[in-house]
Amino acid sequence: MSLRAFSRSVPRTVSRLSAQSTRASVFRPILLQSACKPAPAPRLAAAFSTTRRRYAESGVVDEELVAKLQQEIAMEQEMRDSDNYSGNIKEYLDGSPYKLVDAEGHEEVVLQRTYNDEKIRVTFSIADLNNLENDADSMQEGDPAMQDEDSADFMEGQSGGANTKGAINQGRTSGGNIKVAPEDSIAPADRPELADEDPNQEPSFPARVNIVVEKKNKGALAIEAVAQDGEMVIDNVYYLQNAALADAKTAEKDWERRGLYTGPPFGNLDEDLQVLMERYLDERDINAHMALFIPDYIDFKEQREYLRWLSNVKAFVES
């Protein structure tokens, strides 16, 4: 998780802890007093004021809110490097055959290109980074024992499967994943496609990627994958005879797609078929370089959109 995401989660955690301590110090003495003292006689007069409050009309809250928003804007501007792309992002966009489509104020980002007679679209969203921050808050509030158990289950579930990119000597485990022979377990730093990467680079967060490869009058392949730490891990591969269903953004198209048989789970496919599907994407430049670019761009775009949101809210409250 990025430093910015951690810094945002700390004030929320501190406020929760202070609220809990306040409740403990205020309500417990009251409960003890109520147990020792007789109940007071009922009041006949009204215990509330009928005077109309004018606090909201004075605009004090507006001023405090604007000041707080300005403080957040200043902090975000101080933490970011610049308004321009980082070196990694610029290098990828300059050398990639994909065109970047990024609309201001929208969560989704699209990389698109033409390859022979195919139209390829790779879609990802900054919502993954926001969901990661929410998951971190939930882990902080949960049971530590449950956190350890969830972490162990996650690590166990990550062994094998399509994570072993380009492995040769493989065998299938009882859970349907692919077990990799020791000689095929190649460290990321030793892979040729990542030879130029910084070995001290921090692990990235998992980013969901939707890939659509469309051919005219032949339908489309819709591929669900995850980009993380320089790997494009395939989750599912669907074939859709109607290419319009690949991006099912309306309720009607989504309902129509749900009733179709689109293929088995990717992990249930033959091992060689899985490897060939990965090579199929790699040939279309959906590879390790794209898997490194996507989390970086999500982090860049999320910060830019957050700053825009802060500025828009501040301008609205000030007007």
TrEMBL record:
Pfam families: MAM33. One of its GO terms (cellular component) is mitochondrial matrix. GO terms for biological process: cytosolic ribosome assembly. Residues 166-176 have a biased composition (Polar residues). Signal peptide: none annotated. Residues 134-153 have a biased composition (Acidic residues). Residues 133-183 are annotated as: Disordered. This is Mitochondrial acidic protein mam33. It comes from Cryomyces minteri.
